[in-house]
Design goal:
heterodimer, A: alpha/beta, Rossmann fold, six-stranded mixed beta sheet, four-stranded antiparallel beta sheet, 14 helices, B: mainly alpha, Ammonium transporter fold, 15 helices, 0% strand, globular
């Protein structure tokens, strides 16, 4: 039983290029750049000094804030620099630069904690926090913070294998290649929440993943159910996914725990398993490299901090000069202009396009067709939000619930007039935040 | 090092194939159905009147934006659609200057002066039609259809065709025109009337095409036609209710209005509920004018009046907020104004 969310769009999937390709290990680069901010929340403070030698998996930065995730050395070697470096989200952010000694000498702290059964819920949360885990679906919210905020309130645990963004196949490959790790991590989460059941949600465009996960489940499922969901963007958005699985809608401004739900990305769950059973902190992640400018699209397991340039080189370089490079999916990803920026914890894909995808319009004009209204999964009226933002009528934007916008891009994708709707809404939200700040002082 | 050849822009980075041009092209294709039957019934003059109307609309669209040094919007084909709809609202016997005057009103006065496509608040073709009623002699003489007669009307020079009574004028006097026009004539369009309004069948086919191509949803046409059908069935004027209803629905510009005019993007609501309200409102006003007004037809005025209410309708028909239960909106809370 599913409760389809309203709205959404059906962009071309483009997943054929990589969905059959097993995850390849990308050898660690000569130098990794680890920004102190690879997650939502407080940036970390570096724990190391220039010249210091660090081991693989050693904690090199952390923060005392409850909303943060520590950072570990993704190679063994020497700290070459601690300085601002280009960050994929724009600008320069302090980063720890490690010179790889090529030995991958593991830190002695990396040792198995045993099985999830043997550990208490508190121990498990501590392991997850120390492993530096964040939401690997792209949002990069610290996993332990998410767990802590929902303790005692959750009745539905959902593993997000929707992967609704076009081109991206990293979660798909994880579901196919390490389903037992997903189930292992899920058991740990079920133990933490004291739940007997959980749901793994997968879009129907990945029947092999549904099949593999079901095969991996113990007889009778052990409380875990695999739920195939319609292939419709943004099926994997947290609020839409909760609605699809439970029929409940997260109230405006509230966390999923408000409706008793918690959602974790499949790769995050698999990483929880590795953190618990092997003691491995988050050192690498699966990145789909694809797009029309990429010679040989692949799914790569990449060390965190690997420069984007090195990742593209591993896929045979560019077929032609890329027009645009995106970190993440084409619907919500961030355009890149500097290939020195590193792969960070939320990097699920790197896409390079040789030309503008779809017909661009020189002069964006709204024809009031209302397609944005039909496409909005949050039931907003983007057409009005846009006109109010253009006229700087921010109070009206607020009254028309602009704060509910999840910036999924469905409206802008479908807009025949090619309006820059999401950009306009981000601008309005930013102005509203600034106005609020001024008002608060 | 930043690579300056890389374009940095806001997400999303992909766009659907469909654009304004392709949507308007679909509308033109849908309008070709009624145009073909108009040529069959009224001769080649139906084509020339339409051509003059389209050419004039496109010219004014181009000229206005050229004079004001704005980017040309001819390519979006919206002026072609306006031209087609304008001619569809005229009797085939009008002199050629009439659609040119109408095109000026539609494109320059109603459309461009208010900011162009998407910013208009009245349907340009309907507003122009209403303006052209300043020339009642031309606007209310409807020649009889002559199937297959290409030269039914002279292509050049004045037309002094015999004007025939439309089915609506019978209905106005509370009588079914069954002896003059049977229902089959109304469905096919073998009746006197404006160039593009006569054939309910072809108009509905065009409408089905638009729905299949997802250019429009059936909400407004269904609400509009359904309201007129229900009201005329419930309040027939003396005759058999079902016949009366069918004649009312199939006569005049109702189907043209419901399928092609009331669904005009800029002048109809964007919310689902708003579209139902809009369609029902158009239906109520149409029947009201037909029953109680002095003029036999009410479609143009009904749609124009509802056009003016669109902003209000959208405002009162906001969808249920995500995460707020269905009934909660009736419970007033501090902060949000209703």
């Amino acid at each position: 039983m599913t409760f389809p969310f309203q709205g959404g769009v059906h962009p071309e999937g483009h997943k054929d290029a990589t969905q059959q390709k097993p995850i390849e290990l990308l050898p660690p680069p000569a130098q990794v750049v680890l920004p102190v901010s690879m997650h939502i929340g407080a940036p970390c403070e570096p724990l190391v000094k220039v010249g210091q030698h660090v081991l693989l998996g050693e904690k090199i930065a952390m923060s005392a804030s409850p909303v943060s995730a520590p950072i570990h050395a993704s190679v063994s070697g020497t700290v070459a620099a601690v300085e601002p470096r280009p960050h994929p989200n724009g600008g320069r952010v302090p980063a720890i630069v490690l010179e790889n000694d090529g030995a991958d000498t593991p830190h002695p702290d990396i040792r198995p904690f045993g099985s999830a059964e043997a550990l208490t819920a508190e121990d498990l949360i501590a392991v997850i926090r120390e492993a530096g885990l964040v939401g690997l679906g792209g949002a990069a919210f610290p996993t332990h913070t998410k767990i802590a905020s929902g303790l005692g309130k959750i009745d539905t645990l959902i593993v997000n294998g929707a992967e609704c963004e076009p081109y991206i196949t990293s979660d798909h490959r994880v579901m196919l290649e390490t389903p037992e790790e997903i189930l292992g991590g899920l058991r740990a989460l079920m133990k933490i929440y004291g739940l007997e059941s959980a749901v793994i949600a997968v879009e129907t465009n990945k029947p092999d993943a549904v099949e593999t996960l079901r095969r991996t489940l113990p007889k009778r499922g052990g409380g875990v159910r695999v739920a195939p969901l319609a292939t419709r963007y943004p099926q994997g958005a947290e609020k839409q996914l909760i609605r699809a699985v439970t029929g409940r809608e997260v109230p405006p401004g509230a966390l999923p725990a408000a409706v008793g739900a918690a959602v974790f990305n499949v790769d995050t769950v698999a990483s929880i398993h590795r953190a618990v059973t092997a003691g491995t902190p988050l050192l690498r992640r699966v990145v789909t490299v694809s797009g029309s400018a990429v010679s040989n699209p692949k799914n790569l397991s990449v060390r965190l901090g690997t420069p984007l340039r090195a990742v593209f080189e591993a896929t045979g370089g560019f077929r032609e000069q890329p027009f645009k490079i995106i970190m993440g999916g084409p619907m919500m990803g961030v355009a890149q202009h500097n290939l020195d920026a590193p792969v960070i914890k939320g990097t699920n894909a790197l896409l390079a396009f040789s030309r503008e995808e779809g017909k661009p319009e020189k002069e964006p004009v709204c024809i009031r067709c209302g397609r944005c209204v039909s496409a909005c999964p949050m039931r907003l009226l983007p057409v009005y939000l846009y006109h109010y933002e253009q006229k700087n009528m921010l109070a009206e934007c607020e009254r028309m619930r602009i704060s509910d916008c999840i910036e999924c891009g469905s409206c802008a994708y479908i807009c025949p007039g090619r309006l820059h709707l999401v950009h306009s809404f981000r601008t309005a939200k930013q102005k509203l935040r600034e106005a609020q700040k001024r008002g608060g002082n | 090092m930043p690579d300056t050849r890389l374009v940095v822009s806001s997400s999303p980075h992909i766009r659907a194939e469909e654009d304004t041009h392709s949507i308007m092209l679909d509308v033109c294709i849908a309008l070709a159905f009624p145009l073909v039957i108009a040529v069959y019934f009224f001769g080649l003059r139906a084509l020339t009147v339409t051509a003059v109307s389209v050419a004039a609309c496109v010219f004014f669209e181009w000229a206005y934006r050229k004079l004001l040094k704005k980017p040309s919007s001819v390519r979006d084909l919206s002026a072609v659609v306006t031209g087609l709809l304008l001619s569809f609202n005229l009797p085939v016997s009008v002199p050629y200057w009439l659609p040119v005057v109408g095109a000026f009103v539609a494109v320059v006065v109603v459309k461009q002066l208010y900011g162009g496509i998407g910013k208009i608040f009245l349907n340009p073709a309907l507003a122009a039609r209403v303006f052209l009623f300043s020339f009642p002699v031309w606007m209310t003489s409807f020649p009889k259809p002559q199937p297959g007669q290409w030269n039914a009307l002279p292509l050049w020079g004045a037309v002094d065709a015999v004007s025939a009574a439309t089915p609506l004028s019978f209905l106005k006097h509370g009588a079914l025109p069954a002896d003059t026009y049977n229902l089959q004539d109304l469905v096919l369009g073998q009746i006197p009337g404006s160039l593009g309004e006569v054939s309910a069948l072809m108009l509905l086919l065009g409408g089905v095409y638009l729905v299949v191509r997802r250019v429009i949803t059936p909400r407004i046409p269904v609400a509009y036609l359904g309201t007129v059908a229900a009201l005329t069935f419930l309040f027939p004027k003396g005759n058999v209710a079902l016949d009366w209803m069918l004649y009312e629905v199939l006569s005049g510009g109702l189907v043209l209005g419901a399928v092609f005019m009331a669904t005009d993007y800029a002048t109809s609501p964007v919310t689902k509920r708003g579209q139902w309200i809009f369609g029902v409102g158009c239906g109520l006003l149409t029947v009201f004018i037909r029953y109680f007004g002095a003029y036999p037809e009410g479609v143009s005025y009904a749609i124009l009046v509802m056009n003016a209410c669109v902003w209000l309708i959208d405002k009162i028909s906001l969808p249920r907020r995500f995460g707020i239960p269905r009934l909660a909106r009736f419970i007033r809370k501090g902060g949000g104004k209703a």
